[in-house]
Design a protein that fits this description.
2 copies of one chain form a homodimer. Chain A has 359 residues and is an alpha/beta fold. Chain A contains 16 helices and 14 strands. Chain A has an 8-stranded mixed sheet with strand order 7-2-1-8-9-12-13-14, with helices on both faces. Chain A has a two-stranded antiparallel ribbon with strand order 3-4. In chain A, helix 1 links the parallel strand 1 and strand 2. At the A-B interface, helix 9, helix 10 and helix 15 of A face helix 9, helix 11, helix 16 and helix 17 of B. Chains A, B: One of its GO terms (cellular component) is cytosol. Chains A, B: Homodimer. Chains A, B: Its EC number is 1.1.1.8.
Chain lengths: 359, 359
């Protein structure tokens, strides 16, 4: 018996594999954590061999991260229950569409006081059209608390030891330090806040704004226009959080999950690219989405639609002119030219942060 | 006799000429403003003809904006006193180094209740090494109040009717509306705030951060690193304003003068380019500055130096790790590698906006 906390990773895509390197190295050094990390791998056969066997003998995830070696204390399993049974900390890094079924399989099979951490980009669609945050879904399905780690959109940058920042939205005070030490590395700087909803929703909304920035790029609008989209998108994010996730703190928007991820997304993310192609090719979004998006990054257009459903229900479309115009352009309700018109004419004095957060 | 306000422009460079188009068109439509706008032009001979004569006959500033026609109600003068004598609103758009002498010439020759507006990018060097804002200098020298217009770094974008935003920091309540109407056009959206110091200093500090972003570009660091520089630069700007210009409002940082100008500068400004060349060529800054900088955009390195003098005096260098490391790299005190080390290791929890602005 030991008091050390046991950590497992559920998922084996490139983000899961990248983070497994940090986690594997960190637990090996820790006095507080078990040195072995179980990793649930969706079983596949690669040239006739099981992927789990390949990982456990070569320590290379040949399917998703063939150029990187995993620490040998990360052990692959093809059974999610066996992976998670003894875990005190369950790191979820699977596509958002698999969360429901995965939680159903695990329900009642994990330690009752286990703590989950979602690394999942995306959200679930509520019956009423509202966004359901993935961490909320995990908490509801698995009956345990769930934190989030957001930031560093680009797994290969982290894998290549380029500098990146992450934000941990921690829902359990006593895990704050341990989660920080679990993920941080020399090149991946993590900051922990308890404002978990805000961390997660910021990371979702930025895809809408990045799509807007991509529309501007597609129309060959100038740098000032793009900067205006970023600025107003940031303000609408503040306002959105204030309406739908009240009690959040302004400081959270200045973490990596807020300002940094937004800026990076508006210059380098796939939603930006998708929007640019949408304008330049004139093809329908449904066609381009398949062409451009690899992996499971949530799409700006569907996010914009769900955001719009939430705004419409509260009669708030006019108070979110940027989110609204991006949705309407995606939906074919507005022509592209309305984007610039909105920047030129839409009122914005209604949502200054001084008002919202009562500075 | 008339109650209409008389407007003049002091300066004839490309920014002065660009804004003269907006001002000329706006006064012509206004019930409150005199339809004629005097413009002070530093006299030069172009192919044997006076520049003022060319402007007044062809309405083209052949020297600085040869591709654009000025409204015919903008009239060029070569005598600054004659230009400004009857003005109620004096728009200053001259290089910062000429402000002192220009104000000396004008002292006692302008209407005692005249109001100045500075469009000047840059600052003056105080005897004690502190930054003196140009609007403060004008107020001190000319004994009249002075507002500022900041934003849209790129005169040619405005001239080409691309979308841009500007922020007016207005020091006189009764001029708020009139200044807005004087500068705004269909493609140039202006927002007025009374937080003039903050507007002006944001516009200065962004050159330091853009220089930092350029260092990262020069070292071929990744998008996440640049986003981190923007994020931390933004936070240090908040903190700097809180220390040196207390009483400013958080909302101001979300105007164009804050977030938009910062982002644009970190992707497109000349300080970014200067820093990139500094890293890639290994040449001393003094050599590159002449090569790269056209016009009078204030330089990141000299700004960083003055910022550092101000911080050092208050013993605050450690609390501004990004500003400090950029200065020290410029000054040759630190090697380039310290930039990334600072991002990785420097504490930042000391300057969260929640603390600074006591949200």
């Amino acid at each position: 018996m030991t008091d050390r906390l046991n950590v497992c990773i559920i998922g084996s895509g490139n983000w899961a594999t990248t983070i497994a390197r940090n986690v594997g190295n960190n637990v090996a050094r820790s006095q507080l954590l078990e040195p072995k990390v179980n990793m649930y791998v969706y079983e596949e056969y690669i040239d006739g061999r099981k992927l789990t066997d390949i990982i456990n003998t070569t320590h290379i995830n040949v399917k998703y991260m063939p150029d990187y070696v995993l620490p040998s204390n990360v052990v692959a399993y093809d059974d999610v229950v066996a992976t998670a049974r003894d875990a005190d900390i369950l790191i979820f890094a699977i596509p958002p569409t698999f969360v429901n079924s995965c939680c159903k399989t695990l329900l009642g099979k994990v330690k009752p006081m286990a703590h989950a951490v979602s690394l999942i980009k995306g959200f679930e669609h509520g019956d009423d059209g509202q966004i359901i945050l993935i961490s909320h879904l995990i908490m509801r399905q698995l009956k345990i608390s769930c934190s989030v780690l957001v930031g560093c959109n680009l797994a290969h940058e982290l894998a290549n030891n380029h500098f990146a920042e992450g934000t941990i939205g921690c829902r359990d005070q006593k895990h704050m330090r341990i989660l920080h030490d679990l993920f941080q590395s020399e090149t991946f700087r993590c900051v922990v806040t308890d404002d978990a909803d805000c961390v997660e929703i910021c990371s979702t909304l930025r895809n809408v704004i990045a799509f807007g920035a991509g529309l501007a790029d597609g129309m060959d609008l100038n740098e000032n226009t793009k900067a205006s989209i970023i600025r107003r998108g940031f303000l609408e994010t503040l306002q959105f959080v204030d309406v739908f996730y009240p009690g959040s703190r302004l400081a959270t928007f200045f973490e990596s999950c807020g300002l940094s991820d937004l800026v990076t997304s508006c210059y380098a993310n796939r939603n930006r690219k998708l929007a640019e192609a949408f304008v330049k090719t004139g093809k329908p979004l449904s066609e381009l989405e398949h062409m451009l998006i690899v992996g499971h990054e949530p799409l700006g257009p569907i996010t914009a639609e769900m955001v719009n459903i939430m705004l419409k229900k509260k009669g708030l479309e006019e108070k979110f002119p940027l989110f609204t115009v991006i949705y309407r352009i995606c939906a074919g309700i507005y022509p592209l030219s309305r984007l610039l018109e909105t920047l030129r004419f839409a009122r914005e004095d209604i949502y200054h942060p001084n008002h919202i957060f009562q500075l």
